[in-house]
Amino acid sequence: MRFEEGGGGLTCHGGTFTLVVSRLNCWCSCFTFLSQGCFETPSMATEEKGTPAEQSQLSPPTGAPQDSERAKDAEELQSACATVRAKLDKLSAESSLMNFKFKKFFVLRPGTLNQAIKDVEALVKKEEDGNVQSVWLMAEVDHWNNEKERLVVITDNTLMVFKYDFVMFLCEQIQKISLNYVDRLVHGTFNFPKHSLLKREGEGLRIYWDRMRDPSFTSKWNPFSVDFPYTTLISHPVSSINDTFASLCDLHKFREHLKVVAEKAHARNPAPGKANGVTVLNQPITIEAYVGAMSFLGNQNKLGYAMARGGLGF
């Protein structure tokens, strides 16, 4: 066996040693490549890639438009919050004012309404009127557009409208209408003559019990006249104070209940010369008043209601 030194290392002319040396050179090259590329340390990777701060400094400022949009959104949110806060403050002030006004009604004083209901129920004659079906808190609108506080009682046979003094706990006036004579219920908005200076918002209910009789001319122009074959009712102003008063002042439920009880009274005791049943109409309710300066002042100041008015009276 003979050895010669060449460019690739020692060469053995026997053949076997040459293969071993070539494989050793290949393994050394692979180890060097793996040690430099695949097995680099974290410090080397950090040095090559650089720190995040350095990268952010080197990268272009792509976040600037996003920051401006966020600032704009924040300003819009603050503006919206300020608007909502202002509306809530205004609503709170209006609510406080309404509560202050409502507290002036004597009917809202603790125990007042319960005592009033007991007093009017005691005036019901069971032999003549029957049992009490329901009690309602309403307001009556007369033919001169004046509002007046009323308690209304529906019994088996009678519709009773009470003028009750909530200050002295005293019933001052009673109007009785036999239910078997009630023939028409008209509900809707209010209507005035063409040249009238008056107006009235909201809806009402007019109860007719003698459609064949019209009020006389003198009755229409007499502000104290009660000779009318109908009565007009509206919801009491305190209907929105809570659920209890909302139920007592519900004009829609009152109309439905009155219709049912009146039809039973018609069937039980039909009136002679009158058609049985109750007609319900949805149409404007006409009030034939033209100037009505006194009614305007009275309604604006709630003179028809029992209220605390300082030193001026009730």
UniProtKB/TrEMBL annotation:
Entries under Pfam families matching the protein: hSac2
Domain HSac2: 107-281
Sequence segments annotated as region (Disordered): 44-72
Lineage top rank: taxon: Eukaryota
Cellular component annotations (GO), alphabetically ordered: cytoplasm
InterPro entries referenced in this protein's UniProt entry, alphabetically: hSac2 (IPR034753), Inositol_phosphatase (IPR022158), TPRG1-like (IPR040242)
Transmembrane segments: none
Similarity remark: Belongs to the TPRG1 family.
Protein name as annotated: Tumor protein p63 regulated 1
